[in-house]
Amino acid sequence: MKLFGTAGIRGPIDSKVTPELALNVGKALGTYIQEGTVVVGRDVRTSSVMLENAIVSGLLSVGVDVIRLGLVPTPMLAWATNRLGNAGVMITASHNPPADNGIKVFNDRGIEFFLEEEEKLEEIIFSQSYKKAKWDEIGYVVDRDLKNDYINAILDYVNHETELKVLLDMGNGAGSLITPYLLRKMGAKVITLNAQPDGHFPGRKSEPRYENIAYLSNLVRELGMDLAIAQDGDADRIAVFDEKGNYIEEDTLIALFAKLYVEENGGGNVVTSINTSFRIDKVVEEAGGKVYRVPLGQLHDGIKKYGAVFASEPWKFIHPKFGLWIDSFVTIGLLAKIIDKEGKPLSEIIKDIPKYYLIKKNVKCPDEVKSKVMERVKEKLQEKLADEVEEVLTMSGIRLNLKDGSWVLVRPSGTEPKIRVVVEGTTEKRRKELFDMAHTLVVKTVSSLSS
């Protein structure tokens, strides 16, 4: 049995991420680090206070002290852990539905636990081999409000003032507490939507996919904004629209930052996830760098292995010089700086990024048949594309890089009962034919193995 997926522990609060589990995670983490201080934060979900109390109780029971930040975005929890803690815990299900919640665990550098560390926590939980503190060794709690300190740290790093007009859609999430204040301190003119924290997410679905935030396109134009930015529930993700109301594909944004970091460093390695575009490789290689791909949720392992100057998966950006965690707020500050430094609108800046044609779609699949579905899909995909395959990558499912520069990825979701199908084609026609083939294969395989 496994508790941790690609983004910590995540699932329904009535069956998986229960107070009992949260208590045990707290006890296990305290047992694992033995002593010291753990920084704890939570997102806006209605169940987060409940889980926070359980986590804190578990930590205290083994003699570990707690710095409790309360309601904060995940990047801030990571930053605070790096400064003040021996470990950190964030209670969040990120962009999952409101009935879900989750637990992410960080080490003292603000990095999400590596796979081997998560496995050690699971071993402690399953064996129930928890440390127990005596009555006079129980830990203590200190409540801290560090939001202004965090904002000031980002301002120091970005080191830029701007007069950009920015439309923000906070999605009723924890970013509401940071993003508007950060940009206003930079001098930006800010208009906010859905900026009241609310665990029911009444404004829109929490995930900042285009279909959930498409209305921003018209608003950007009507309000005369320079760009629009949307965040998810715990504010580690962002999505961006340019001044014309065009949605900026996440891989284009990754390519933009990757290119600039490699140019700034005179070369260097960029780490990205298995589900990203070849446009990143193209601009990085032209700038004198190299791209390495890793499984979803393992950017930190990739940074450690390849010494990356920049790392990203869709919507999530890590800026190693600031910190080794996903930080959307640094990304937002730097994006404003890039637009100003380039002296032209975002739509013009990204014209240098090559265009490919990418599509992503999910297929519902019960968790219990995911592995069987993937086994069959791996076999069938390679059969169907045998003459066209240049490279096969089997991390996070299967990705077939084809000779014409197109690619097909099929992978199981690590957080939801779904199989994800991602296809990029060198032309729209190529994308369509590859996607139709792969998507149909997955749908039929799920159907045959679920019945």
Automatic annotation (TrEMBL):
PROSITE patterns the UniProt entry points to: PGM_PMM
GO MF, one example: magnesium ion binding
Keyword check for Endoplasmic reticulum: no
Pfam families in alphabetical order: PGM_PMM_I, PGM_PMM_II, PGM_PMM_III, PGM_PMM_IV
Domain Alpha-D-phosphohexomutase C-terminal residues, every copy: 362-437
Gene3D superfamilies according to UniProt: Alpha-D-Glucose-1,6-Bisphosphate, subunit A, domain 3, Alpha-D-phosphohexomutase, C-terminal domain
Residues covered by the Alpha-D-phosphohexomutase alpha/beta/alpha domain: 2-129, 149-245, 250-356
Alphabetical keyword list: Isomerase, Magnesium, Metal-binding, Phosphoprotein
GO term, biological process aspect, one: carbohydrate metabolic process
Keyword Metal-binding annotated: yes
Cofactor(s) annotated in UniProt: Mg(2+)
Family: Belongs to the phosphohexose mutase family.
Protein name (Swiss-Prot/TrEMBL): Phosphopentomutase
